[in-house]
Specification:
With 414 residues, the protein is of the alpha/beta class. The chain contains ten helices and 15 strands. The structure holds adenosine-2'-5'-diphosphate.
Length: 414
């Protein structure tokens, strides 16, 4: 009798559409462009993915870490994956595949990289600072959201400006929703998309510290900009941002999360924070600053250096409360790009102007750097950091690598 021909088994990398929050982190991280998306799903091309694992640690939800043993010629195509609402069940391999799954895993699947590979293109760390507190993630998913109640919703930019940015406070009552500064949550807007599918969750960073927007209460806050145009300036209606900005007190919202296990603040005494943000990217900076402010009396705080970019003072969220903070508590540098009678300035210009202060903090291993806001500023900020370190005769390539390996440089851009 003829023996069955051996078939090649693939350990296929898949993304769980029920947990994925479509944040684009995986697509940005993949060093070989194996990940792509449409309006429904993020998917992995089985012909390109080499199982390097670079995308796995940065994923805030863990939805990226799914694998199926399949016969290579029958791998799930991009078209299959784009149509999924949930992952397919594991299928038994045909006998001709020979080995039992575990064995096949060891012999035929593409070997995941031994250590987590950090692609050289990734600007930031894929690990948290060593002293970060341990975060909870995925307590609530698309299938099991939690209901929160709106207990506050007010505008934090000048009423006469185009930037309609809201501070929204959500209360979880008796239900557990433990969070850390730097984490995010997902909001499920009601209704359906053009194809009649329920809207996917939209991700928002927390603007409040771990012990609540109001200390000791089971609530948190978000900083939400009403989206009325896209990045190209064309008219566009943001489904979730408009829904959130229009909420009234006592309305309820469906929430999933929390998410994020790397963009976290250090927890040890005398840790310094360099915070660089634009617009609503100020949310995590507000959370971290407030964490420090609430423990001023302990004397444990390190230094806070903030670079904050906005069009004008009136379009800078939380301008009033920010300017009330004591100058010996936080070193505030505002980069205003459209203030009448002033030259256009970006955060990277101020980093250069404050080179000495930046260098001093960078020389201290207790310093962590957080960058949040417009995608476009990533390159500008990295260039500015390179310039200020090289001015002092240091090698930025080495320092950059150290900052990433030690979980001391974090980006969250959109
Ligand atoms: P600009 O006036 O050139 O748009 P927004 O209000 O759109 O959220 O932007 C927040 C701030 O970030 C604005 O001052 C904006 O300036 C600025 N900005 C835009 N592009 C960049 C960039 N590539 N690097 C740094 N800041 C930027």
């Amino acid at each position: 009798m003829n023996a069955a021909l051996p078939v090649e088994v693939l350990k296929q990398h898949l993304i769980d559409p029920e947990i994925c929050i479509r944040c684009n982190t995986c697509e940005e991280t993949c060093p070989i462009d194996a990940i792509t998306h449409d309006s429904n799903n993020y998917v992995v091309d089985p012909d390109i993915c080499n199982g390097c694992m670079a995308c796995v640690p940065p994923c805030p939800t863990g939805s990226i870490d799914n694998w199926r043993l399949v016969v290579r010629t029958e791998a799930y195509s991009l078209q299959d994956q784009l149509g999924w609402d949930e992952l397919p069940r594991e299928q038994p391999l045909p006998e001709a595949a020979g080995a039992a799954p575990a064995e096949a895993d060891a012999t035929l699947a593409p070997a995941p990289a031994a250590a987590v590979a950090i692609p050289s293109a990734a600007p930031g760390a894929s690990v948290p600072p060593w002293s970060a507190a341990h975060p909870y993630v995925n307590l609530y998913t698309h299938k099991t959201p939690v209901t929160a109640t709106v207990v506050g919703n007010y505008r934090v930019t000048g009423a006469d400006t185009d930037s309609d940015i809201h501070h929204i406070v959500l209360d979880f009552g008796e239900l557990p929703f433990p969070v850390l500064e730097g984490q995010s949550i997902g909001i499920l807007p009601p209704g359906a998309d053009a194809q009649g599918r329920p809207h996917h969750a939209r991700q928002y960073s927390l603007a409040s510290p771990r012990d609540g927007e109001r200390a000791g209460y089971n609530n948190l806050s978000l900083t939400v900009k009403r989206v009325t145009e896209d990045h190209q300036g064309q008219s566009a209606h943001g489904v979730c941002s408009n829904y959130l900005c229009d909420l009234a007190k006592n309305d309820t919202v469906q929430v999933i999360g929390p998410f994020g296990h790397t963009f976290l603040m250090p927890n040890h005494p005398r840790a310094n924070l360099i915070m660089i943000c634009t617009g609503t990217g100020s949310a995590p900076m507000r959370a971290m600053t407030e964490r420090y402010r609430r423990r001023i009396e302990t004397g444990e705080n390190g230094r806070l250096l903030l670079f904050f970019g906005a069009r004008t003072e009136r379009e800078l969220p939380y301008f009033g409360p920010l300017m009330k903070l004591p100058r010996d508590f936080i070193d505030i540098n505002l980069a205003l790009s459209r203030e009448a009678g002033q030259p256009k300035r970006y955060v990277q210009d101020l980093i250069r102007e404050r080179a000495a202060a930046v260098r001093e903090l960078l020389a201290d291993r207790n310093t962590c750097i957080y960058v949040c806001g417009l995608k476009g500023m990533e390159v500008g900020v990295l260039d500015a950091l390179r310039e200020v370190t090289m001015q002092a005769g240091q090698d930025w390539t080495i320092l950059h690598d150290v900052l990433r390996r030690e979980g001391r440089l974090h980006f969250e851009t959109y």
